[in-house]
Amino acid sequence: MARDGITEADVADLVQRCQDAAAALIRGDVRSYLGLFVHADDYTLIPPFGGAPRHGFDASEDAVEQLSRFFTGGEAQVDVVQSYVSGDFVVLVLVERQHGKVGGLPDQDWSLRVTMLFRREGDDRRVARRSAGRGGPHIATHPRSDGVGPATGAPASVLLGRSPARWAGACELPCAMWCWRLRLRSGGPGRSRRAGRRTRACLSQ
Fold it and tell me: Can you spell out the DSSP letters for the chain?
């Protein structure tokens, strides 16, 4: 059945692309990820751990290489909460249940609540917006009592024992994720201020 010219098959295709894209990204296969989505010129990213929205998508060779090195293995499963269609737009509300090795950290949970906005442009359905937030249904987000970071499986010493400068230019989602986590977990005021500056620098790239 078609809804405003966009069929159920079109929506199912976008859902499958989201599944394939999440699986490709978490294992570091960024080129496959980019082969699944075309980002609109006015694409906007709302990072999952705070910070200013980002406009545009950097698909340069340098950015792709850095992002490929940032994700080094994992698995993802995408659950569809709801879909909406209106005119040339499709909105997918998703839960990305995923774990992997990100930014040199041990394998841990990176599950996100995600809203994706697609806009039809000619024969393409381009990603116009991605908004993501930490956690999902049945995913713990509270601090654990065993000294391990909240819902990550990584000891706090691991999260705090790395320099924010190491992640310079890490690009888009992972950079925002790391910097925001570091701000939340940093110990003294000096470390918090440094992490905050790194976050703003990352999001301005």
Answer: -EETTEEHHHHHHHHHHHHHHHHHHHTT-HHHHHHH--EEEEEEEE-TT-S--EES----HHHHHHHHHHEEEEEEEEEEEEEEEETTEEEEEEEEEEEEEETTPPSEE--EEEEEEEEEETTEEEEEEEEEEE--TT---SPPTTSB-TTT--BHHHHHSS-GGGGTT--HHHHHHHHHHHHHH--SHHHHHHHHHHHHHHHT-
Return the CATH architecture of domain 2-145.
Answer: Roll (3.10)
> Is the per-residue pLDDT at 100 higher than 80?
yes
Kindly indicate the confidence band of residue 135, based on its pLDDT and cuts at 50, 70 and 90.
Answer: low
What is the band of 4 on the pLDDT scale with cuts at 50, 70, 90?
low
Res 49: pLDDT: 75
In the predicted model, what is the mean pLDDT of residues 128-149? 60
The structural domains of the chain, with segments of one domain joined by +, span: 2-145
C-alpha 138/C-alpha 18 separation (Å) is 21
